[in-house]
Automatic annotation (TrEMBL):
<dbReference type="InterPro" id="IPR002606">
    <property type="entry name" value="Riboflavin_kinase_bac"/>
</dbReference>
<dbReference type="GO" id="GO:0009398">
    <property type="term" value="P:FMN biosynthetic process"/>
</dbReference>
<dbReference type="GO" id="GO:0003919">
    <property type="term" value="F:FMN adenylyltransferase activity"/>
</dbReference>
<keyword id="KW-0418">Kinase</keyword>
<keyword id="KW-0511">Multifunctional enzyme</keyword>
<dbReference type="InterPro" id="IPR014729">
    <property type="entry name" value="Rossmann-like_a/b/a_fold"/>
</dbReference>
<keyword id="KW-0067">ATP-binding</keyword>
<dbReference type="GO" id="GO:0006747">
    <property type="term" value="P:FAD biosynthetic process"/>
</dbReference>
<dbReference type="InterPro" id="IPR015865">
    <property type="entry name" value="Riboflavin_kinase_bac/euk"/>
</dbReference>
<dbReference type="InterPro" id="IPR015864">
    <property type="entry name" value="FAD_synthase"/>
</dbReference>
<dbReference type="GO" id="GO:0009231">
    <property type="term" value="P:riboflavin biosynthetic process"/>
</dbReference>
<keyword id="KW-0548">Nucleotidyltransferase</keyword>
<keyword id="KW-0808">Transferase</keyword>
<keyword id="KW-0285">Flavoprotein</keyword>
<dbReference type="InterPro" id="IPR023468">
    <property type="entry name" value="Riboflavin_kinase"/>
</dbReference>
<protein>
    <recommendedName>
        <fullName>Riboflavin biosynthesis protein</fullName>
        <ecNumber>2.7.1.26</ecNumber>
        <ecNumber>2.7.7.2</ecNumber>
    </recommendedName>
</protein>
<comment type="pathway">
    <text>Cofactor biosynthesis; FAD biosynthesis; FAD from FMN: step 1/1.</text>
</comment>
Length: 308
């Protein structure tokens, strides 16, 4: 997969393009992605176009926490078969582009779009004045095919990134995963920790996520860790380790069941399935050790009832 980021001096040809924010790559996004991937058999390039930073960030002092960071999104899409991911710079200049200017200068001149695939509520251009009606009108002028997908529902709830973010932020992982279509996952290279888990008899892998990664509340979760394509059940603690001296940042520490290989400097994926409990400061290491044994029982029991 070609990854074009932070620059505007590129030119593609014969592209089918899906446009959007794509935070979480949820079930609605997957419809758009699958549509462009289907066109590859006809000789087209499958291109996903998004912005390098979430558009909300330019106009807000608070950085939006993302379900998947840019690196995580890139990794997922690379495995999907996508040909090109464009993370276009979202600057004041980009934000001030009139909708038709964006279509002509970006979608046509840079991407050579033969098909454009969007969601029904897709808006673009200065003050978000561009919409699917304008895209339909301009398709006659510029000769592309427009494919529009309606929002999809889970029960009476629209599947959206904002709703999924709220579910993750509340620790409702099972519900969030249902809407995502895949388990919410934290990815990264295993770091050296303080080896407290090893001292307690439960060695853990340690990830330190990027600052803009949306994390669920501190606590313990049933998890599946993927290492070199193989999946292993376990339990994951997210938090600051208050019992053994608080860490400066939230960490993701996973005890993988029946696994004893050294994973330092190895890229892993930790998928969270369900929340067991919140993070607690114990008075002694023996209390912490006893609770960790209970957490492991919870995790094993969870995956016996929910095969992965």
């Amino acid at each position: 997969m070609e990854y074009i980021t932070g620059r505007t001096d590129f030119k593609l040809s014969n592209s089918v393009v899906s446009l959007g924010k794509f935070d979480g790559l949820h079930r609605g996004h997957q419809l758009l992605l699958n549509k462009i991937l289907e066109q590859k058999k006809f000789g087209y390039q499958a291109v996903m176009f998004t912005f390098m930073y979430h558009p909300q960030n330019l106009f807000s002092e608070k950085e939006l926490d993302l379900i998947y960071t840019e690196e995580e999104k890139k990794y997922i899409l690379q495995k999907s078969g996508l040909d090109v991911l464009v993370s276009y710079p979202f600057t004041e200049e980009t934000a001030s582009m009139e909708p038709e200017q964006f279509v002509k200068e970006v979608l046509i001149d840079k991407l050579d779009s033969k098909m454009i695939v969007v969601g029904r509520d897709f808006c673009f251009g200065h003050q978000r004045k561009g919409n699917v009606e304008l895209l339909k009108k301009l398709s006659i002028t510029y000769g592309y095919e427009l494919v529009v997908y309606d929002k999809i529902m889970e029960g009476d709830q629209v599947i959206s990134s904002s709703f999924i973010r709220s579910e993750i932020a509340e620790g409702r992982l099972e519900n969030a995963n249902q809407f995502l279509g895949n388990p919410y996952t934290i990815m990264g290279v295993v770091q050296h920790g303080r080896k407290i888990g090893h001292t307690l008899g439960f060695p853990t892998t340690n990830l330190i996520p990027e600052k803009n990664k949306l994390l669920p509340p501190s606590g313990v979760y049933a998890s599946i860790t993927t290492v070199n394509g193989r999946k292993y059940p376990g339990v994951t603690n997210i938090g600051f380790n208050p019992t053994v001296g608080k860490t400066p940042e939230k960490r993701v520490e996973t005890f993988i069941f029946d696994f004893n290989s050294d994973l330092y400097d190895t890229f892993i994926e930790v998928a969270l399935y369900a929340r067991e409990r919140g993070e607690v400061k114990y008075q002694t290491l023996d209390e912490l050790r006893a609770q960790m044994k209970k957490d492991i029982v919870y995790g094993r029991d969870y995956f016996e009832k929910h095969p992965y």
